[in-house]
Amino acid sequence: MSEISEAEKRRILRERRQKKLANGGASNRLNKITGQVDSHLSTESPLETPKDQVSPIISATETPIPAAYTKAGVNKESHRAGDFKDNDPQVELFKKLAELQGADKSTPDLFSLLGSLKDGMSKTNEPAVGQPQINPVDEKMLQYHDYLVNRLKAYTILIRWLILLPFIYMVVSSSYASEMFFTKPSNFFMIFTSFEIITMSIYYQALQRIEEKNNVNTLNNSSIIMKIVSMVPEGVLPIKDLKGKAALILQYQQVLSMFVTDICFVIIMVGIFSYLY
Amino acid sequence: MDLSVDPNLHSLINSTTHKWIFVGGKGGVGKTTSSCSIAIQMALAQPTKQFLLISTDPAHNLSDAFGEKFGKDARKVTGMNNLSCMEIDPNAALKDMNDMAVSRANADGTNDDDPLGGLLQGGALAELTGSIPGIDEALSFMEVMKHIKRQENGESETFDTVIFDTAPTGHTLRFLQLPNTLSKLLEKFGELTGKLGPMLNMMGAGNVDIASKLNELKSNVESIKQQFTDPDLTTFVCVCISEFLSLYETERLIQELISYDMDVNSIIVNQLLFAEDDQEHNCKRCQARWKMQKKYLDQIDELYEDFHLVKMPLCAGEIRGLNNLTKFSQFLNKEYDPAADGKIIYELEEKE
């Protein structure tokens, strides 16, 4: 075989040395050395130490390199010693700093900070405003409740009008000289008022039952006035329990409006029946 | 194809390509003697070239080895006109840095009442930086960079080859790690200054062009890194003795160096007794110790068959002074033959 140059020989020898250290060879060599004297020294090779572990000799971390090193002799450009020192603690620190600079999401900005602060404040302030807050109700539940209330209202009006209609007919059709208690015109207003009070009581009892069942306060959730009143902070107006009072007024208004509606119905029906007979 | 490896450093001593030669190993195995010997042999073999021997060990031994005082500036060894030595004193270098900071503060017309100025006068900077771990290696590295810069600018005497008498293993590895660490750090600094540049300018650092300075430093460090990992330019010579701990540490050192992509192809096994060839001065203790050394030598032969394995004798006296070092160093160029060269180990001059 032909003579090889000195440089070529050096390169071949270098590759041979690398080969002996690759694929667990490095640890085996240390094992061989320590095994002869039963030493307790570490046989973990710096070449095979995982990146995040600290080498016993130096305080910086090491990374295995055989793959890169086997190319070393062939190509000088493959000498990338820097690749093996990625985990220097100082470098890690600067990496983290750079990441903080680069990644916006990891850096809490002023707006998100204010947002979270606002959230926290609104949460803590809710009970302080004094709202008798019902448990959170979702939108569908509210819609269902409204449907039940409206249906109750409609049935109540229908039933009342259906009862009132024959009563009005009897009163109008019977002569003025009727001596019957129910058909006597002078007794009409007393009977009508009593009927109104009874039906309204029944209506409100039924409404209360629905509210208890659905855990929804109809006034608080459906009335715009109640919503406006609840926005007024306590102490701004010189009225104590403004919300409670507003709720009471609204309830009276509801009762009155139902009563007025019934009176209107009675007047119209009396007019119609009087015209017919 | 002849792939046998010479049991000497003849090829390294006569190498014309090597620019950086590191000599290192465990403490007390003869690193300084070996590095001095390599430097002397190289200087003798290549008289037209200039060699520099730098000690990066904080506890310097070069002055003692040659028997003359060397300082932070390169000085020729008496009796040799192509070999210079220098010892980097971290404390002196730090004092220089401190003095520079003080003079700069004074030149800027800083008030004497300035607390920072007062601290600097008291050498606070030197004390502070002196306590940073690894500062010795960093300063040695800075010195190497300064040296390269001066050579490039033609400001000082140029050296063809620089031989490093390194500190014990841990220190040396940190020193060799510096180019990597620095280049990574500078890379990150570059990214940061790109982002923080405007802010730094606002803070009054605008008159200093940080980015260009960092880039300059980075290119210097990169060039050193490239040179240190080029096997034609840089090599590491391991020195050990034929004992368990030394062998163990040498193996780890070699593996670490390979992980840095550094070339290591020579091992000097120092302080060997060769007792069986020394019938005249033989003793029971020497025989026993030589038996132990042989046990490890066999292992070394087996483990490092692809390395230049140089077996050096333990001399009767201390190897100090140029003459003694020259006598001893010849066995690096041509391997020691116990039968023929045995008498030389008794011929060392006694230093008074």
TrEMBL record, chain A:
Disordered: annotated segments: 18-56
Role this protein plays: Required for the post-translational delivery of tail-anchored (TA) proteins to the endoplasmic reticulum. Together with GET1, acts as a membrane receptor for soluble GET3, which recognizes and selectively binds the transmembrane domain of TA proteins in the cytosol. The GET complex cooperates with the HDEL receptor ERD2 to mediate the ATP-dependent retrieval of resident ER proteins that contain a C-terminal H-D-E-L retention signal from the Golgi to the ER.
Coiled coil start-end: none
Any one Gene Ontology cellular component term annotated for this protein: Golgi membrane
A GO molecular function held by the record: membrane insertase activity
Family of this protein: Belongs to the GET2 family.
Stretches that traverse the bilayer: 157-176, 188-207, 255-276
Keyword Coiled coil appears in the UniProt entry: no
Any one of the GO BP annotations: retrograde vesicle-mediated transport, Golgi to endoplasmic reticulum
Organism for this UniProt entry: Naumovozyma dairenensis (strain ATCC 10597 / BCRC 20456 / CBS 421 / NBRC 0211 / NRRL Y-12639) (Saccharomyces dairenensis)
Keyword terms: Endoplasmic reticulum, ER-Golgi transport, Golgi apparatus, Membrane, Transmembrane, Transmembrane helix, Transport
Keyword Transmembrane helix: yes
Quaternary structure and interacting proteins, as annotated: Component of the Golgi to ER traffic (GET) complex, which is composed of GET1, GET2 and GET3. Within the complex, GET1 and GET2 form a heterotetramer which is stabilized by phosphatidylinositol binding and which binds to the GET3 homodimer.
Protein name (Swiss-Prot/TrEMBL): Golgi to ER traffic protein 2
Residue ranges with Polar residues bias: 25-46
Localization per Swiss-Prot or TrEMBL: Endoplasmic reticulum membrane; Golgi apparatus membrane
Regions of this protein lying in the Lumenal compartment: 276-277
Membrane topology: Multi-pass membrane protein
Cytoplasmic compartment residues: 1-151, 208-254
Predominant place of localization: endoplasmic reticulum
InterPro entries: GET2, Get2/sif1
Automatic annotation (TrEMBL), chain B:
GO biological process terms held by the UniProt record: cellular response to oxidative stress; pheromone-dependent signal transduction involved in conjugation with cellular fusion; post-translational protein targeting to endoplasmic reticulum membrane; response to heat; response to metal ion; retrograde vesicle-mediated transport, Golgi to endoplasmic reticulum; tail-anchored membrane protein insertion into ER membrane
Predominant location: cytoplasm
One Pfam family this sequence matches: ArsA_ATPase
CC annotations in GO: GET complex; Golgi apparatus
Residue ranges constituting the ArsA/GET3 Anion-transporting ATPase-like domain according to the UniProt record: 18-333
Binding residue positions for Zn(2+): 283, 286
Any one GO molecular function term: ATP binding
PANTHER family noted in UniProt: ARSENICAL PUMP-DRIVING ATPASE ARSENITE-TRANSLOCATING ATPASE, ATPASE GET3
Functional description taken from the UniProt entry: ATPase required for the post-translational delivery of tail-anchored (TA) proteins to the endoplasmic reticulum. Recognizes and selectively binds the transmembrane domain of TA proteins in the cytosol. This complex then targets to the endoplasmic reticulum by membrane-bound receptors GET1 and GET2, where the tail-anchored protein is released for insertion. This process is regulated by ATP binding and hydrolysis. ATP binding drives the homodimer towards the closed dimer state, facilitating recognition of newly synthesized TA membrane proteins. ATP hydrolysis is required for insertion.
Name of the protein this chain belongs to: ArsA/GET3 Anion-transporting ATPase-like domain-containing protein
Organism: Naumovozyma dairenensis (strain ATCC 10597 / BCRC 20456 / CBS 421 / NBRC 0211 / NRRL Y-12639)
This protein's encoding gene: NDAI0B03200
